[in-house]
Records
---
Amino acid sequence: MPSMGELDDLRTNLRQLIELERASGVEWLPMPRTSAPSTSAPSAVMPITAATQTNPRREDEYSPPVAVAATPARSAPEQPLAQDRWTAPADLIEQPAALALPRIATDIAACQRCGLCATRKQTVPGEGNPTPAVVFVGEGPGQEEDETGRPFVGAAGHLLDRMIIAMGLSRSEVFIVNAIKCRPPGNRNPEPEEIAACHPFLMAQLAVLRPQVICTLGNVPLRALFGPDIAGITRVRGQRRDWQGIPVIPTFHPSYLLRNESGKKPAWDDLKAVLTLLGRTPPAPMRREG
């Protein structure tokens, strides 16, 4: 056991170290974890095609607060607590997206801040090009996404692929992400506290991706970006909005289009509005044979 003199020396050294760090601009020091985070590996997030590319930050973009010490993981809390919400590390937004996105995915994989962690098989952080022209934001993972860890791989995903191709783009040119990162049981709509728990992850992803256009798919991502009081998707689809200086075009979720054939024409009009914002000429519609 150290003597009183040794303890006094230790306190003095620690005080000097803290004062030196504070003088250097450091505003927080991480606390050690008392329990290990989830060991589930993050799923593939994106092809790393531009690891050395830099993305200068604009003044009107998302600016994360100074990071706070990580909260130890807990098993299946009933609801997220405000102090448990993930906070983007202070240096994250300054990094190229190809480096920042895997860091966010790792934290998503370890997240236990709402009850969905108890029922998920895998987290679904998102995937695509780290420097995309367009980011598509969906609602949440379904069964196939929960099993694979990839977004939009079920029936709705196949339709989204066709929509992207119809725009003259490919899946490797865009980034696809969901407002929440874990599957709600039975594919039910996510609860407000579940959306709130994932909200900082989505904000950080959009901030590092810095797309030219964001296209939201359905009500959940629309309200995740603009709040719960915004009108429903049938009233605001196709109407341009702005998030942190980035234009946003809301449209129907592909799962809705699978059930409602009449929604496909207005959805295509919305996608043409996205192309117009990109400065691209919408391709001519493909004719069906037979």
Note: The chain has nine helices and six strands.
---
Amino acid sequence: MIAADLLAQAEHDVEAKPILVCTDIKIANDVNSSIKARLALLSTAPVAREALTKGFACVCDDLSSAVEVSNLLGPEHLEIHTEDAAEVAKRCTNYGAVFIGSVSAEVLGDYGFGPNHVLPTCGTSRYTGGLSVFTFLRIRTWMNVTDQSEAQAAIKDCVDLAKIEGLEGHASAAQCRVIGSEDDSHTAKKTKLQ
């Protein structure tokens, strides 16, 4: 089943990268043997074979390490074939779409149940998700500080941080908002910009 699922991804494109992460070298060897046998019968073998040269198997010491490797890889599609697959899925944080348990084959997502398939590739799921309505929203932020006395601690931190960064203009812009500072009284006396 794992070999079949990897080949289903490999036949998409010569640039596909089918990857197996497991905790037993025997599983990796068995999957590899099954892939070779299935390739002999696969009409899309030329494409799949080339894609397989870009993929790999990673044998981890334990399930926690396997989850860590998966999170580092940030796969577009992640199938989880373990006992307690739903619990393992909760520990996986970086993927485009996750398919939990052996019945939840990625191909069912392609042709049957239809979760989002406009997904981040090449590990970009580490910082972004699939295409959704949120992709088309324009996010705007704002700040409105109305009580200068309550903001004094933050303003003083800004002065210090700006000075640490060597940005004197930033420090000055914050300093002139410190109540009772020399910059504050100097600014208050100004009636127009020079």
Note: The first strand starts at residue 19 and ends at 22.
---
Amino acid sequence: MRLLEVEDVSKRFGGLSAVAGFSLDVEEGEIEGLIGPNGAGKTTVFNLVTGITRPDAGSIRLKGKDLVGVPPFRIAREGIARTFQNIRLFRSMTVLQNVKAAVDYEKTYEVAGAAFRSARFRQEEDRIDEFARGILQRLDLLDHADHPAGSLPYGSQRRVEIARALALEPSLLLLDEPAAGMNPNEVSTLAGLIRFIKAEFGLTVLLIEHQMGLVMNLCERIVVMDFGQVIAHGLPSEVRSDPKVLEAYLGRGAKVSRC
């Protein structure tokens, strides 16, 4: 079943065509990779899907529902969560507070209830706290719940960012270069984490990544972009052997490492 359908989408910024006639189908329950050189338009695609940027043309649908023109917070409620190239945590807040911030929109009590700490307020706060701690436990972060997010090692901060995205209870998780800045051991751990959250949370995952070993061994299908357009798509084995991909992205005669 197709979860996300992006059809013939285009976006220009002034005289620059960032995305041109781009199409993408993401099947429910799969891990799909979106690769290409810097400036190919990958993050623009994520911004279009999440409503940060509105396309000039084309359609974007989640479970058949049109997302074009829908505000980002409503798209999040529809089931799309994302992380960013650069970690965007509230560094001085605790790990637990970072995750709880993602579920605050579901609060059902009134402002007065919060001001006077009504029974309804306390019940809702307890529910959010328990929910957030449950996510931290499943991602092996519970021991860090009360630590400032900015005090954690880089790889753990990435994990907290993913935990915060999971707090939105998405059906589709967009990961924008999750392995950026990681050493080989951290990349291997990340691969295991992505497989775990796919299975544990029943997620579909679309990731942008430059670590080819991670992409080729983790993703079930891969889409390759260049200058805002799709130049190749298919199984990892097909993309790995595509001459255009080898020449433009991996280099002639390059070998893909395993992680």
Note: The mean pLDDT is 89.
